Amino acid sequence: MIAKRIIPCLDVKDGKVVKGTNFIHLREMGDPVEMATYYSENGADEIIFLDISATNEGRKTVIEMVKRTAENIFVPFTVGGGVRTIDDVTQLLKAGADKVGINSAAVQNSTLIKEAADRFGSQCIVVAIDAKKFSNGWHVMTHGGRKDTGIDAVEWAKTVEQLGAGEILLTSVDCDGVKEGFDIPLTKAIISEVRIPVIASGGCGKREHFPDVFLETDASAALAASIFHEGTYSIQEVKQICQENGVNIREA
């Protein structure tokens, strides 16, 4: 059985790591390269950066951050946020990212997923799906969780797999930053319809939430930000409770 992965997420705005609740009320947490290096040395299986400002000027800042990160860490890392073109994907991979995350641009131009997967391989392409519960199911949200596309999230997950995405980063907009646990129904609904790995994201507030999502769904990885950035729990403590609950987890 493939070991489950624990992934810290660093939301980056204007060159600094920030964290909010329900995608808003951002507060500054620290330097992204320093934080990534710390996590790499202390048990993270992978690291994800999300550039949430993603202006043209911000893109240059992120490229430099990626280069510095690649020189300092020894675990795979994904960079997403504001990726709109094949050239954006190319720049991030050339700078040292192992994978590139695509979100809003994929919804607007789904051929970007296929083009990127054909050129660089599915293993490099992560499609981020931000989903919010509505009366008729979960809708795909874009623009930092603010815009309702009306697209059914489960159907969209199936589509991105068909287009060549190698992985899905699934974030519950409802649970993001709330710290009451991962969105189990949403995660189950997506995983039941795709074969590619799914990273559960949004809502982790206790270390017990990690074994919960692994035991109740087939998520291949779980992601958190606040509990790691604020020092509430270490990655080692999270891995320990996963092992105690019988989850196949990589050693810290």
UniProtKB/TrEMBL annotation:
Active site per database record: 11, 130
What's a GO cellular component annotated to this UniProt protein? cytoplasm
UniProt record, GO biological process:
L-histidine biosynthetic process
- Say which enzyme class the record assigns: lyase
Where does the protein end up?
Answer: Cytoplasm
Task: Give yes or no: UniProt keyword Protein biosynthesis.
Answer: no
Name the InterPro entries for this protein: Aldolase_TIM, His_biosynth, HisF, IGPS_HisA/HisF, RibuloseP-bd_barrel
- Provide the alphabetized UniProt keywords: Amino-acid biosynthesis, Cytoplasm, Histidine biosynthesis, Lyase
Catalytic activity reported = 5-[(5-phospho-1-deoxy-D-ribulos-1-ylimino)methylamino]-1-(5-phospho-beta-D-ribosyl)imidazole-4-carboxamide + L-glutamine = D-erythro-1-(imidazol-4-yl)glycerol 3-phosphate + 5-amino-1-(5-phospho-beta-D-ribosyl)imidazole-4-carboxamide + L-glutamate + H(+)
Coarse class of the primary localization is cytoplasm
Q: What family is this protein classified in?
A: Belongs to the HisA/HisF family.
Entry function: IGPS catalyzes the conversion of PRFAR and glutamine to IGP, AICAR and glutamate. The HisF subunit catalyzes the cyclization activity that produces IGP and AICAR from PRFAR using the ammonia provided by the HisH subunit.
Q: How does it assemble?
A: Heterodimer of HisH and HisF.
Write the protein's name.
Imidazole glycerol phosphate synthase subunit HisF
Question: What species is given as this protein's source?
Answer: Heyndrickxia shackletonii
Q: Which gene carries the instructions for this protein?
A: hisF
